[in-house]
Design goal:
The chain is an all-alpha fold. The protein has a domain of about 40 residues. The chain is about 85% helix and about 0% strand. The radius of gyration is 16 Å and the shape is elongated.
Length: about 70
């Protein structure tokens, strides 16, 4: 197992966001959700990924202190 897990973490986060954004855009294109709801879902996804990204970064920094 490699010591540096950062590339895997970044790829996982990007893939998760792109997959979720793709599903939201698909729902917008097929008119299942309105434009306002689609934008709200995209903003929520960005906020969620940013928040969990900060949480993961802090967790890794605290782990290095011990």
């Amino acid at each position: 197992m490699s010591k540096n897990k950062t590339p895997k973490l970044v790829v996982g986060i990007v893939a998760s966001f792109m997959g979720l954004a793709g599903v939201i855009i698909f729902l917008l294109a097929t008119k299942i959700v309105s434009v306002q709801i689609g934008i709200l879902m995209l903003v929520m996804s960005v906020g969620m990924h940013l928040g969990f990204g900060i949480l993961i970064a802090v967790y890794r920094l605290v782990g290095k202190l011990e």
